[in-house]
Amino acid sequence: MDIFDKFNVDRSSLGQYSQDAHGYFTFPKLEGEIAPWMTFRGKKVLTWSLNNYIGLANHPEVRKADAEAAKKWGLAYPMGARMMSGHTSKHEELEARLARFVDKEDSYLLNYGYQGMVSIIDALLDRKDVVVYDSEAHACILDGLRLHMGKRYVFPHNDINNLEKELQRATKLVESTGGGILVVTEGVFGMAGDLGDLAGIVGLKEKYNFRLLVDDAHGFGTMGPKGAGTGTHFGVQDKVDLYFSTFAKAMAGIGGFVAGNAKVVNYLRYNLRSQIFAKSLPMPMVIGAMKRLDLLQNEPQLRENLWRIVHALQNGLKEKGFDLGDTESPVTPVFLKGAVYEAANLVMDLRENNSLFCSIVIYPVVPKDVIMLRLIPTAVHSLDDVNYTIDAFSKISSKLKEGKYSKETISL
Fold first, then answer.
1. Which of 175, 219, 252, 384 has its CA at 20 to 30 Å from residue 130's CA atom?
2. For residues 35 and 41, is the Cβ–Cβ distance under 8 A?
3. Do 240 and 101 have their domain in common?
4. 237 and 113 in one domain?
């Protein structure tokens, strides 16, 4: 057999829709300045699909810092991996600032959040260790777990009672292997917006010996009194052993970091294969990240604006009877009932006739006959944008209930 013979995109779970969906539902092109209103297929649309939480993507100070750093340093410097020739004092400065911000002893920069998390899990675990993780963990966590050659146990999403049962199993196992236990969860679950039960998990530390790794990609910059994450929101940041986040969300950039005990972070510094064998984060991204961190720390009105829009959008949708699940974060899922073809017609109606662009999630990511529309409010949206959106959602909801999307085909 030729190994390439099996690579038919139509056979994959999402690829089966590629012929009809490509360029519209999948791989759409949003063009123009990053803003609430952008261009899709030549038409202005109100956009709710960008993780630009506190509006830094096009902030004038950020644009200036990025441009000046690129002019001064170029995109190549520093050349090489951090361990060999790509290390600078600016990288160290950013790491120190991030550690202080999230109340940890030390932190280490990552070129990308996704590959960083994969490598963190790989570095932490050996075959004697047991990992216990939430069933709705992000793909980067799952890919990291695939590298683990020891036991792994999964607990139903946020089910603390079941987690305890898995910890009992894990404890019994490591008593014979001599290994340790790592629990992995998220601060904010990025699809449905609900929070990981960090307080419940750390409460189990009184009975079981384990370490906790939290992926807080959507919580960093949005959650907690100062935007320092979901651990600070619950008041348990000191019990989170390793705190991970990416710059791709609230920081509107590229890269990420892991923070924790200085000894452990230093171990990761020397053992993260995705960093040891990859080029260092370019200087403009490091300088740009520091400017973003400045604004996150010193301009609380950005986060206040975000939550003003979040509350207006979520409360307004709930008042109209929409099901938003259990979200407690800016992530705003709207759950509707309908078949895949109804979902396609509904979203096309939103985009073509209501000039509104948001992400759509269908089976197999969510159960059959569930349509999830996922909105990401930002600090740069306006209350007019919110009211416009609630009106548009009311229209499409009525048409869905009347069966209009099962009868009509909206042509592109």
1. 219
2. no
3. yes
4. yes
Q: How much is the average pLDDT of 359-379?
A: 90
Do 13 and 131 lie in one domain? The reply is no
User: In what helix (H) or strand (E) does residue 208 lie, and over which residues does it extend?
Assistant: none
| Pairwise CA distance, residues 79 & 96, whole Å | 22
Angle between helices 283-298 and 89-101 (to 10 degrees): 30
Q: Which amino acid type is present at position 340?
A: V
The CATH code of the domain that includes 99 is 3.40.640.10
Binned at pLDDT 50, 70 and 90, residue 14 comes out as: very low
Q: Which domain holds residue 220?
A: 78-281
Is 292 inside a domain boundary?
no
Does pTM top 0.85 for this prediction?
Answer: yes
Report the C-alpha gap between 212 and 232 in whole angstroms: 15
Final residue belonging to a domain, choices 224, 249, 281: 281
Q: Which residue has the tokens 């959507």?
A: 218
Structure tokens at 323: 């099901």
* Residue among 187, 194, 159 nearest 328 (CA): 194
Q: What is the distance, to the nearest Å, from the Cα of residue 243 to the centroid of all Cα atoms in its chain?
A: 14
- Distance, in Å, from the CA atom of 269 to the CA atom of 254, rounded to the nearest integer, reads 19
